[in-house]
Amino acid sequence: MGEQKESLRKITHTLALKNEEISNFVCTLKQSLENLEANANRVQEDLESEFNSLYSVLEEMKENMMTRIKQERAGRTYELQQSQLSACSKALESSEELLELANQALCSSETNAFTQQAAKDIKDSVTMAPAFRLSLKAKASDNMSHLMVDFSQERSVLQGLKFLPVPATPEIQISDCQVCDNTVTVVWTLPEPDGKIDHYILEHRRTNHEGPPRIREDYPWMVVEGIRETEHTLTGLRFDTRYMTFRVKACNKAVAGDFSEPVTLETHAFSFKLDCSSSHQNLRVEDMNVEWDGSGGKQDIRKEKNRTNSPMHSPARSALMSPKRAPTTRPGRDRFTAESYTVLADTAIDAGQQYWEVRFDKESKAFAAGVALRSLGRFDQLGKSGASWCIHLNNWLQQTDGQAQQQGRALDCPIPSSIGVYVNYEEGVLSFYNAKTKQLMHTFKTKFQQPVIPAFMVWNGSFSVVTGLQVPSVVQSSQRRNSTSSSNASLT
């Protein structure tokens, strides 16, 4: 009977997953229909706008050319009619009068009247006639062929108008993508070279789901535009989700292609919150910031969705399909009291290598950061019992004292304002680094018998914690060198 129930449970679970997949696909189809309607209207409006713009250009060119023809005609008309035609008419009229006068003189029967002087005067008038000074070549041509336009090439171009070719869909090369040091490098290729590609658009979205993107996602798509190469590196990321999904599309001067198939990359990092219910009553906890308040700070007990205050959750368990934390019994409000100004994280470490950073106010009278066991007593001060390991800063009475405490040994270097904390649970290693330079400050080597929890203490001061960080490559290299040195030393 138990096996049948288990078999039925598996089948039911599979059907539920399939139903969810179909539901997501239905939402995708509905969204595609809406997008199709909107996109079709958009391209239709764009096409009409382009043709109207083209008409406007042609009308403007037509007006300019017509004006040029009218000006040319007016100028030549003036040259031919007002200048040459008028002068020729006057010269012709004067010549006709002189001819008539000369003919009358020649035909006269009165010989006494045709004296030598009269003949000379007539001869001089004819010689100086305007007709002899006129140029009988037209000052302007009647040919207007230089203002003719050959539209054959333009007509051919217009007849060749067609929709722009859509760029091919890129393909993200998962094997070439890299996730390291809280950066992600995404590499993609095109099915074939395309010299008309102007740029690429990359979108990425945080997610806790390994499968294909879902319509109902908690995180929006973030857009990176203007990428000129076929790869891009995102830097300065916080990996507070288990995965990141990427997609990319190519664009030419006027149109964008389709998005590539989304690719999901794992972004493993150690992420936790501060457990408000564990903190001392004099500590004001707001998100990842803590400030000492001598009057008794009010706690910010807001909890994230799907998150409890239990430290039972571990990075090893976070690799499972369900990220929910297992509930556990939690002591009351005064988890720490008296002079134990301590606050714990809400996530325990029981496997793997983890890293986080803490930045504190160097004016703090006292500050400590490290890890602790669950059994850390409510009156225990961090680093002063066998249940915790930490770096401790004491500015009390203006005396700066940096120590690595479980043993209370003074450090050889000053404590920077930003500290990187590294834990290798299996190797029993707890190391502290200068978060900026990644210089090793101190290392505890022990054997963790129980899960450990990030722990912090502050008195008359404040600090903030940065999580979602991968173990830096520099730190990993340093740890490997230290491990090799220790192994070699043990063999001698």
H/I helix tally? 4
Extended strand count:
21
Euclidean distance between termini CA atoms: 62 Å
User: In CATH, what is the homologous superfamily of the largest domain?
Assistant: SPRY domain
Biggest pleated-sheet summary: 7 strands, antiparallel
Radius of gyration: 46 Å
* Element pattern in H and E: HHHEEEEEEEEEEEEEEEEEEEEEH
- Per the principal axes of the C-alpha atoms, what is the gross shape? elongated
Percent helix range? 25-40%
Characterise the protein shown here:
- The chain contains four helices and 21 strands.
- α1 (2-107) runs antiparallel to α2.
- Mean pLDDT is 82; it is low at 301-332 and 487-492.
- It folds into three domains: 1-145, no CATH class; 171-266, Immunoglobulin-like (Sandwich); 275-295 and 334-400 and 413-481, Jelly Rolls, CATH 2.60.120.
- With 492 residues, the protein is an alpha+beta fold.
- The strands form four sheets. A seven-stranded antiparallel beta sheet has the order 9-10-21-12-17-18-19, with no helix packed on it. The protein has a six-stranded antiparallel beta sheet with strand order 11-20-13-14-15-16, with no helix packed on it. Strands 1, 2, 3 and 6 form a four-stranded antiparallel beta sheet that branches.
- The longest helix is centred in the first third of the chain and has 106 residues, at 2-107.
- The protein is 29% helix and 24% strand.
- Residues 270-474 form the B30.2/SPRY domain.
- Residues 291-333 are annotated as: Disordered.
